[in-house]
Design brief:
The structure holds two protein chains of two kinds. Chain A is an all-alpha fold. In chain A, 85% of the residues lie in helices and 1% in strands. In chain A, strand 1 and strand 2 form a beta hairpin. Chain A is rod-shaped and about 205 Å long. By secondary structure, chain B is α/β, with parallel strands linked by helices. In chain B, helix 1 packs parallel to helix 2. The longest helix of chain B has 13 residues. Chain B is globular. Chain B starts with a strand and ends with a strand.
Chain lengths: 390, 101
């Protein structure tokens, strides 16, 4: 009677141990699946664990009401089978964990180098922008693009005004020259009047000489000498008339030359201001368009240079987020260790020996593992902490 | 067409009327309109209300009138400009030299 009770207690202890072992394995699978993101495996493991907890006694052959009368041998065989199966599954899961670890490692390496490149490019872009919007005024002081453009426009406006002022000044001087020419023509007209006076004097002298010759002829021999003088006077008056005529011709040439100069001066003085006006308006319109364009360009450049630091922050955040690799590989490492424990446990199950000793070994292992286990990841979020880039 | 001059009763202000094109061909008549007046003693008004066109020679003539009237102390005003004439006077910045009405 006592012996029977003892065997029954041992058997119940065996049943409870197997049940918790399977449940523990299922729990480990659930944890690993959660870490690697395999939801289907996780659900399957959960279902298996639940089923083991609920139906364990009925799954063992010979368990139940007649448990006390069954032998230990079939139980050991079942444990061995289960142990081998779990061994196989565990090694499969270990392989998967290894593959996931390596995939994450590679992906993170790629992402990290891509983000680094992005960061370099963004810095390069920002530097290019800074260089391209850097303008200097005449004194070498840095000025904005729009200030530079309006300075340029006002300088051009100033130059154009200077040109117009010069044009008007030239016209003024030309008109003044024309006025002097007019004065000169007036003087030439005066010379003409004097010449006419002189010409009429010569005519009168000529007439007088003619009268003197007539009177000398009437006087006969006594007037012969006088006739010679009268002829000489007449010749002089004729020469004077010729001389007058020559001067008149020269003065006439001078008048014609002055008239030509007047024409040239007219051309010099006369500029259609409407052409200049059109040019000025055209240039002003161009500058106002250029200023509008430079204003738009400036605001675009400002926006771009605002974007650069934002881009840098975004890249830094992304690189920081890549720390999840560390945490996940720690978690996966812990999962691998748990799997190794499961396999050790399976090895124990397959080793033949007496039940009490097995129970003791399993309990020892459990306590040892519970002590050695620590939290796999101290950090639970990638948002925490700062990462210095480069 | 041409240049006419009118003056007030006491001879202190003369008005030069320009009719038609105000260009180089008017230079003699324009000067004749003011050359016999004693420069700085008189106030000059140039009436361009009938001027259809002005060119740079006309601007030169106006500057010569200003010099005759005493340069910076001159009292010369230009009145009755049409929009086109006014634009030409503005491009030459005559507002700083003359009283433009």
């Amino acid at each position: 009677m006592f012996d029977e009770l003892k065997i029954g207690a041992l058997r119940r202890a065996g049943e409870a141990w197997g049940r918790w072992l399977v449940a523990g394995l299922a729990l480990a699978l659930v944890v690993m699946s959660l870490l690697s993101g395999a939801w289907v495996q996780m659900l399957l493991a959960l279902a298996a664990g639940g089923a083991a907890m609920l139906f364990w006694p009925r799954m063992l052959p010979g368990s139940g009401d007649s448990a006390l009368s069954n032998e230990q041998a079939p139980c050991a065989r079942v444990l061995e089978e289960v142990g081998q199966t779990i061994q196989g599954e565990a090694s499969h899961v270990e392989e998967e964990v290894g593959r996931v670890t390596s995939m994450i490692g590679h992906a993170v390496q790629e992402l990290s180098s891509t983000f680094t490149r992005m960061h370099e490019l963004s810095n390069h872009q920002a530097a290019l922008l800074r260089d391209s919007i850097q303008f200097e005024d005449e004194g070498g002081e840095p000025v904005s693009l729009s200030t530079f453009m309006s300075g340029f426009a006002s300088r051009s406006d100033h130059s154009l005004q200077h040109f117009i002022d010069t044009l008007v000044e030239v016209s003024k001087l030309s008109v003044q020259t024309a006025h002097h020419m007019d004065d000169m023509l007036g003087h030439l007209d005066g010379i003409f009047r004097l010449l006419e006076e002189s010409s009429s004097l010569a005519d009168q002298t000529n007439l007088l000489a003619l009268n003197a010759s007539i009177e000398a002829a009437r006087a006969g021999d006594a007037g012969r000498g006088f006739a010679v003088v009268a002829t000489e006077v007449r010749a002089l008056s004729q020469r004077s008339a010729q001389f007058n005529e020559q001067i008149r011709a020269k003065v006439n040439e001078t008048r014609q030359a002055v008239a030509k100069v007047q024409t040239t001066v007219d051309q010099m003085a006369s500029r259609d201001m409407n052409e200049t006006l059109g040019e000025k308006e055209h240039i002003q319109e161009m500058f106002s368009r250029a200023e509008a364009l430079s204003g738009r360009l400036q605001s675009a450049l400002d926006t771009l240079s605002d974007i650069s630091p934002q881009l840098e922050t975004a890249v830094a955040t992304a690189v920081r987020a890549l720390q999840f690799e560390d945490m996940s590989s720690q978690s996966l490492g812990a999962a691998s260790r748990s799997l190794a424990h499961v396999r050790e446990l399976c090895g124990d199950l397959e080793t033949p020996g007496d039940t009490e000793a097995l129970v003791q070994r399993v309990r020892l292992r459990r306590e040892e593992w519970a002590q050695s286990r620590h939290r796999p990841v101290s950090q639970t979020s990638v948002d925490e902490g700062e990462v210095e880039l480069f | 067409m041409g240049i006419k001059r009118s003056e007030d009763s006491n001879g202190k202000c003369i008005v030069i009327h320009v009719d038609g094109r105000f260009d180089f061909s008017q230079q003699r008549a324009f000067r004749d309109a003011y050359r016999d007046m004693a420069g700085g003693q008189v106030e000059y008004v140039v009436d361009l209300s009938k001027a259809s066109y002005i060119d740079s020679a006309a601007l030169g003539m106006l500057l010569l009138l200003r010099e005759h009237a005493g340069g910076d102390k001159a009292r010369v005003s230009i009145q009755g400009c049409s929009a086109d004439v006014r634009r030409v006077l503005d491009i030459a910045n005559f507002g700083r030299l003359f009283n433009l009405n």
